[in-house]
Amino acid sequence: MKTVCAMLILGLGVPFAGIAQTTLKQAFAKDFLVGAALNTSVFTESNRTETTIVEKQFNTISPENVLKWESVHPEPGKYDFSLADKYVAFGEKHKMFIIGHNLIWHSQTPDWVFHKADGRSLVDRDTLLARMHEHIATVVGRYKGKIGGWDVVNEALEGDGSLRNSLWRKIIGDDYIAKAFEYAHEADPKAELYYNDYSCEDQPKRDGTIAFLKKLQSQGVKITGVGLQGHYRIDSPPASDVDETIAAISKLGLKVMITELDIDVLPPAWEAHGADVSQNFALRPELNPYTNGLPETVQEQLAKRYADLFSVFVTHRGEVTRVTFWGVVDGDSWLNGWPVSGRTSYPLLFGRDGKAKPAFLSVINTAKMKTEANASR
Ligand code: GLA
Q: What is this structure's pTM?
């Protein structure tokens, strides 16, 4: 029995009537929303394999890139909502909870935002605040009542928990964050507003995040929740750190979301971990060991790791309101290109062929085991 249970947890193909048919959104219907970040080929339905998975499995979506500043507002006075409109229409068509990602970030924001017309000197505080206000009012205003939650500020903290000295902070000052939330709330008072970041599970970033959130709350900032990006590795951070971080944030009265979940099984290219998109390392064969497929042992480790993490998430049902994967199938994950370009990565629940991996079943089984545990109490 023990073996069968272990195999079930790992999702190793033990026949179990009904489990294979259960979808992620059904399995966690009483716990939290389950979603995926979509690239353009998914919401324009040109990639039928992925679109079908999304329609079947998920009840919330995030945009990988199409709502970032550089995509919607590439030049002063010039907005391009062609793809963002399609993304939102896809979510509406399927009655999904639609996420806006993101409004204010140091990355994927064009240089012109921070510079005078000469392209060299920085603008002053009032000019940048006016640009921020206009951008947020336009983008949030366009999707008022359609996009249910916005990542208002992305990655404002450093690994040591201090405020990142981005151009937003340098030019406006520390209150750029409070201002972004104020403008987003003004544009859609009913939308949920989030702070989103990676590696918040690590000390001292966790302590810094909690202090930062408390400060925002004491200033009366209308923040609804926190997105833990969840770009995890196969062996770190420990699930107990994820557990403690969720508990600490939730104690502040904020919702917690896992917003960009994936699990990297490839050898680390550098010592630190996290999701700093500016990191880049040369491709070496030893960094890319699974070009011909993932060995079964690693497949099992991945399934076990997913089960451990989902056990934590379901323990916090009601506090964790959403779990979103960063991508749909392995072949489209950003981890094939970051932090080393050209690798073959396996971080998600669906393989390159669109088939569910053992990790998928192990996640579904986590929900099933929790329901059984509750029933036997
Ligand atoms: C960060 C951002 C995401 C995305 C990922 C990498 O986590 O929040 O928008 O760029 O990096 O794809």
A: 0.94
